[in-house]
């Protein structure tokens, strides 16, 4: 049985919390600038960049300061998992609070905006798929719930970390420095 170094967990949670804080700040900046971060590509790219940077820093910190230069693939995967789950959970909790109590009208505004976007792309969607598919998407948007939105942001943050963690784990395992 492999014992997990408690320092690994502490470093991971610390970096996950800092990453979540930065993604929350970015969200709020975009929100107060009126840029709708939930549908803004720049906001999504910034989230990716923040998660990637802090995930790498967490792995490098462990390798240099805890592992004494030794770094195994499972170290990277464990640290990465804890970092991105912590990030996703904290951000999802913030988002839940934000859409339930911070902006109670958020859901209706979200649905209205999403439906307007869909109407603007109707011709493209119908041409690529079908009228029935378009109507199905329109109906699905109308049935969106707050919990669906919270789950969506949670999954997006998880997926970002899930994609980059193995890459960084391999790189740091293979490198000497």
UniProtKB/TrEMBL annotation:
Listed transmembrane segments: 12-35, 41-59, 79-101, 153-172
Keyword Membrane carried by entry: yes
InterPro entries: DUF4199 (IPR025250)
Keywords: Membrane, Transmembrane, Transmembrane helix
UniProt-listed Pfam families: DUF4199
Keyword Transferase among UniProt keywords: no
Protein name: DUF4199 domain-containing protein
Lineage: Bacteria, Pseudomonadati, Bacteroidota, Cytophagia, Cytophagales
């Amino acid at each position: 049985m492999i014992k997990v170094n408690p320092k690994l967990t502490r470093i991971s949670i610390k970096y996950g919390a800092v990453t979540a804080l930065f993604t929350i700040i970015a969200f709020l900046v975009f929100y107060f600038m009126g840029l709708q971060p939930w549908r803004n590509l720049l906001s999504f790219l910034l989230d990716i960049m923040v998660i990637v940077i802090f995930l790498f820093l967490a792995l490098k910190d462990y390798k240099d300061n805890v592992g004494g230069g030794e770094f195994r693939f499972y170290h990277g995967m464990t640290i990465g998992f804890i970092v991105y789950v912590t990030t996703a959970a904290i951000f999802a909790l913030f988002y839940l609070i934000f859409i339930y109590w911070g902006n109670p009208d958020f859901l209706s505004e979200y649905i209205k905006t999403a439906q307007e976007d869909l109407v603007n792309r109707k011709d493209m969607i119908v041409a690529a798929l079908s009228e029935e598919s378009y109507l199905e998407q329109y109906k699905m948007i109308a049935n969106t719930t707050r919990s669906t939105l919270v789950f969506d942001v949670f999954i997006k943050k998880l997926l970002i970390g899930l994609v980059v963690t193995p890459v960084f784990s391999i790189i740091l395992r293979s490198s000497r420095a």
